[in-house]
Amino acid sequence: MAKGIIQKGILLLASLALVFPLAACGGANNGNNAANGGSGGETGSQQNQTSNQTEELSGEIILNGSSTVYPVALAVAEEFMNANPGVNVQVASTGSSNGIKAIINGEADIANASRLIKDEEVQTIQANGDDVVQMPVAFDGITVVIHKDNDWAEEMTVEQLKMIWEPGSQVTYWSDVDPSWPNEKINLYGPGTASGTFEYFTEAIVGEAFASREDYIPSEDDNVLVQGVSNDKYSLGYFGFAYYIENQDKLKAVAIKAEGSDEYVAPTLETINNGTYAPLSREIYMYPLKSALERPEVKAFIEYYMSEEGQELVELVGYVSLTQDRIEENLSHVR
């Protein structure tokens, strides 16, 4: 079933709409089929028990924020609704900062973010009479990508990436980075400034958060970035690992050599998990409001997120699942 959910999630990710109200009617039909017996041959008492279980939870959960966290949240939301058709989960992809603004303004229950929440953001939530809990949901590796026909920049150093992306960069052509590379203009694609991926990348590569050249094509929708790089032989971009995995038939991931390292390391589930893909391996997060955690449907959603099946979805989407200590820490907030 999880594979089917991922396939549906991928279809939805191809849409340009930012907000996806995930209607529970499909899940309700699946639940009713199970309750009615179908080929399973349940007895009447078993049917009633199944029906009571599926109707136990109700309500609406709204998640907003990071496009990097979005594929994970979407997959978990769909599967959770299949098991709990009385709950409607909405997931929006607007960027980490906008997701945190949404919980500050009472427009969402959970913010998805690919960066740490800032002290001033927590203080604003507390001033509003609420609080927030930080919960990692997966490990990610920000992936630098090039066109599939690019055969000269398959390996790059952090210093070369800094030359390209730093404010005031004098790099216009690939040959400006390495004289042996083509004398062709580099067309750059990357997340917008509201993105936690933008903040993390600039700090890890340039050395200062939010410090970046401005003459690139930004988007909070990673699918726009995928399309831009895949259609342009001389382009370069970056985004979350899951979007690369989904589109690796038309993109190449750049192997990166960190400062002080002797080798170039490509992003894989293994290198992200063991931290050798440096300096772009990181945790990604959700931030539920404490008031939301008091609601049974939100507690159940987070418990499912942290379950074996939920973490299986994390890996099917293309990220690295959490360690057990991280899972237990997250569950401590809802038990």
Automatic annotation (TrEMBL):
Gene Ontology biological process: phosphate ion transport
Primary location class: membrane
GO molecular function: phosphate ion binding
Region (Disordered): 36-56
InterPro entries assigned to the protein according to its UniProt record, in alphabetical order: PBP_domain, Phos-bd, Phosphate_ABC_transporter
UniProt record similarity statement: Belongs to the PstS family.
NCBIfam families: ptsS_2
Protein name (Swiss-Prot/TrEMBL): Phosphate-binding protein
